[in-house]
Amino acid sequence: MKLVFDGVSAGYAEVPAVHDVTLTIAPGEFVAVVGPNGSGKSTLLKTVYRALRPRAGAVLFGDEDAWMARHRDVARRVGVLGQDQAGGYDFTAREAVRLGRYPHLGAFDRLTAADEAVVADALERTGATVFADRPLSTLSGGERQRVLLARALAQQPELLVLDEPTNHLDPAHQISALSLVASLGVTVVAALHTLDLAARHATMIVALKAGTIAAAGPPGEVLTPAVFRDVFEVDGSVVADPVDGRPRVLLREMRG
């Protein structure tokens, strides 16, 4: 799915948290939205999955205004892992992932064997099968995060919107989760705090500073010493991983 931000401003307070964001994301792109706390990452993502209506501008799915589309169509096309989706603790993990199939069902339809196969595959791919029948209330934060990602995958969306998807995950699951997302071939927009993960997995990085785009483009063009200093107030450099040659980000306290 092609995603377009056309002059988007949005926020809860009198001063918008994001201001005049214009950006085109091609189908199949993996975009990492990065920036310090309070830079507007979550606010921008909320305008995509219709949790926060833009004050100005438009969010477009292709040529269609996201906020004019039918709710059911958006639910089918857009999978979401947000920071405030930890509810439903009475569900088992499997039941929570099944919710990802409901946008594809009619009002009186039940899950079919094919739907259950999609659910089982999503649990397997996120490493959640081993606790699929446990209540969410008994799971750790990292385990719940994997269930929420599995639910988004079970939707089989055209666009995945992920707000800090690696929260609570240990290093192994951080890497596997983002590798999985990158392999799906769908459009991905993910707010990430860890620049090293963004560099390794994203095809495009958007750096936000005070609600505006400070830099956008391929990782090699955005992750520069100047951007590290200007946006993140740290010194840093990008080096090639000695094993696979992929970019690695090294950060240091800014001096001088």
Automatic annotation (TrEMBL):
Gene Ontology molecular function: ATP binding; ATP hydrolysis activity
Entries under Gene3D superfamilies matching the protein: P-loop containing nucleotide triphosphate hydrolases
Record keywords, A-Z: ATP-binding, Nucleotide-binding, Transport
Any Pfam family: ABC_tran
Residue ranges occupied by any ABC transporter domain in the UniProt entry: 3-235
Lineage top rank: taxon: Bacteria
PANTHER family found in the cross-reference section: ABC TRANSPORTER ATP-BINDING PROTEIN, HEMIN IMPORT ATP-BINDING PROTEIN HMUV
Name of the molecule in the record: Iron complex transport system ATP-binding protein
